[in-house]
Amino acid sequence: MKIAVVIPTLDEEGSVAAAVASARAQDVEVWVVDGGSRDATARRAVEAGARLLEAPPGRAGQLEAGGRVAGGEVLLFLHADTRLPEGWEQAVESACHDPAVAGGCFRLRFDASGPGLRIVEWGVRLRVALFGLPYGDQALFVRRDVLDAMGGVPQVPIMEDLDLAREMKRRGRLVRLPLAVKTAARRYRGRVFRQMLLNWVALLGWRLGLDRERLAAWYAG
């Protein structure tokens, strides 16, 4: 079962090489889809062994562009500041051998310590367990036929990851693998509980169907 990894980037020269290195494995395609970085992101991605594609900025559009050019029966969408664990490809392949599985995600761990971050990790586990709604920093993966059936990556300005998870659940089972990805805690530095509140309010807005453009502008705030 061939897997392709798609990494959207914008000014991620400090993290993209590690993300690419974590994704490289035998018979795995790694694509970096750059949205016009002004730093050395593209060069470092290529040096790390990725194939490079340029696309207009916007995570959903970049993921869709990468998914169109990548080969593979399974696509894995990886944030540039997230690293996959050793053995990830065998875990994904094993999960997707079950024809009832549409896709899935990994457990989340931060690359920093602190009680606030451990609470966030616990909240993520609770959200996935109760609602089956992982975020993109958990490295979502999806069968290509499922992605094709849903019309590709949802083209929205924010929370395309939740739309993607919801659509996967409509077409099969969404699994959470026991392996943990490690993601940067940079958004939470000095503002753990404020960021938690922002995330939960944005999730509520998503569930209520609020306008995505307004929600994205508020979140970027």
Would you mind describing this structure in some detail?
- The mean pLDDT is 96.
- Strands 3-2-1-4-7-6-8-5 form an eight-stranded mixed beta sheet, sandwiched between helices.
- The protein has helices at residues 16-23, 41-47, 59-69, 88-96, 115-131, 144-149, 160-171, 192-207, 212-220; strands at residues 3-9, 28-34, 51-54, 74-77, 82-83, 101-110, 140-143, 173-183.
- Helix content is 43%, strand content 22%.
- The protein has one domain (3-114, 132-185): Spore Coat Polysaccharide Biosynthesis Protein SpsA, Chain A, CATH 3.90.550.
- It is α/β, with parallel strands linked by helices and 221 residues long.
- It contains nine helices and eight strands.
- The protein is globular, with a radius of gyration of 16 Å.
